[in-house]
Amino acid sequence: MTINQSPSDPMGPRTPTPIPLCTPHMAGREWEYLKECLDTNWVSSGGAYVERFEREIAAFVGVSHGVATSSGTAALHLALLVAGVLPDDEVLVSGLSFIAPANAIRYIGAWPVFIDTDPTYGQMDPALVLDFLDNHCLAADQGLINRATGRRIGAILPVHILGHPVDIDPILQAARRHSIPVVEDATESLGASYKDRNVGSLADVACLSFNGNKLITTGGGGLLVTDREDWADRARYLSTQAKDDPIEYIHGDLGYNYRLTNVQAAIGCAQLEQIDSMLTRKRSIYERYAERLASLPGIQIIPEAPWATHACWLSTVLVDESGFGMDSRALLQQLGSAGIQTRPLWQPLHQSSPHASSPHHGGAVADRFWREGLSLPSSVGLTGETQDRVIEALSACCRFS
Ligand SMILES: *Cc1c(COP(=O)(O)O)cnc(C)c1O
After folding, report:
1. Which residues line ligand 1 (CB under 6 A)?
2. Contact in structure between 170 and 178 (CB atoms under 8 Å)
């Protein structure tokens, strides 16, 4: 069955409307704000929407400074730079993540150390971070050193994946004990909280993304948030080619062109006005999957921790082949042929060829999540009726119900 067949084709069978994984939801003042940018000629990297977006996102997260960037990856690169990560340092990072944070570490010439996943929530395992720092490193004049490689630990980079926070307090305590900065990758979890503190405000600096598939979007873009004024200033400076003089082209450092445009920020401001209703919608999608799939053999939705408020960015299940009668990839194929788009989790980074020469601490749990994980349609615009089509199609694939 093809899903792109025209419904008006008199010869063809009527095919079901495709259900995408996660699409943007433009239901507010996006058009109005965009038009204002074009009408006033404020289309580039300066402008009132950029400042407003920085201020309002920082306020939403609950920190004092925001620096808008051209992508979440650019924000990660800048965050690691302002946190003082140096070439040949090592950065402890979640081993089960989209590849961007590992790449940003390498942009600096530093090395990721991939930390395995906790078996319940799929997030960076704090016990393994502590084990690595306490049992595999030693304190030296220049900082904490990985005994196996001789390299300094420059930062810790927990990635809050899929909308759910990392159990970060033990990590923060260990990092403080060793004076190591902590950078949050909050790109998938804007709107989540950890023990009543907002994700993005938990550590020294945090990074957000406004790519098209994220909770709110600017088309493409990112933001760095921090309470440290000097770090925010430094990030803004580096993001504008490190230009020292308002008139002369004098540059004090090696900088980058990482600024967000006013046009993008205008979309972001309109999106942010809708964030509460989007979060409510994401949560009810997650809860409906959790409730309706609870009794299906071999399917387990990744749960919400008692200490967390899940932002429910992508509702994700683990498919146990022996319990369900089909593995996650066969299920992906089956649902795909019914026009339902699902997505596997990321190849664990310790297996990723661009990062093959980086160290890792564990990885078997991430491997299992990769094998079993499948993210289900989670668009803000998904209706209850359409979601029920997903639930019914998924349930029909189970060999044992
Ligand atoms: C989306 C994402 C990013 C940043 O992505 P950009 O496309 O550069 O905005 C970084 N880390 C994770 C975990 C992500 O999912």
Report:
1. 71-73, 97-98, 100-101, 159, 185, 187-188, 209, 211, 222
2. no
Q: With beta carbons less than 8 A apart as the criterion, state whether 207 and 184 touch.
A: yes
Residues in the chain with pLDDT values less than 70 = 1-14
Measured distance CA(338)–CA(165) in Å, rounded: 33
- Model pTM score: 0.95
Secondary structure (3-state) at 114: strand
What do you get for the CA distance between the two ends of the chain, in Å?
25
Cα 287 to Cα 291: distance, rounded to the nearest angstrom: 6
Nearest CA to ligand 1 atom 10: 100
**Ligand 1 geometric centre to CA of 210 (Å):** 8
Euclidean distance between CA atoms 366 and 191, whole angstroms: 25
Render pLDDT for 194-251 as a digit per residue (tens, 0 to 9).
999 999 999 999 999 999 999 999 999 999 999 999 999 999 999 999 999 989 999 9
340 CA to centre of own chain = 23
CA distance 209 to 320: 32
Ligand 1 mean position, distance from CA 319 (Å): 25
Dist. CA 287–CA 301, nearest whole Å: 10
Ligand 1: which of 103, 188, 239 to mutate, judged by most atoms within 8 Å of the beta carbon?
Answer: 188
How many Å apart are CA 353 and CA 8, to the nearest integer?
45
Q: Which of 93, 159, 185, 209 to mutate to test the pocket of ligand 1 (most atoms within 8 A of CB)?
A: 209
- Short-list 64, 106, 258, 78, CA closest to 185: 78
Long-range contacts, stretch 324-330, CB < 8 angstroms, 24+ apart: 324/296, 324/297, 324/298, 324/299, 324/397, 324/398, 324/399, 324/400, 325/298, 325/397, 325/398, 325/399, 325/400, 326/397, 326/398, 326/399, 327/371, 327/372, 328/371, 328/372, 328/373, 328/374
Q: Is the dihedral of CA 44, 47, 51, 53 positive or negative?
A: negative
181 token code pair? 């900065």
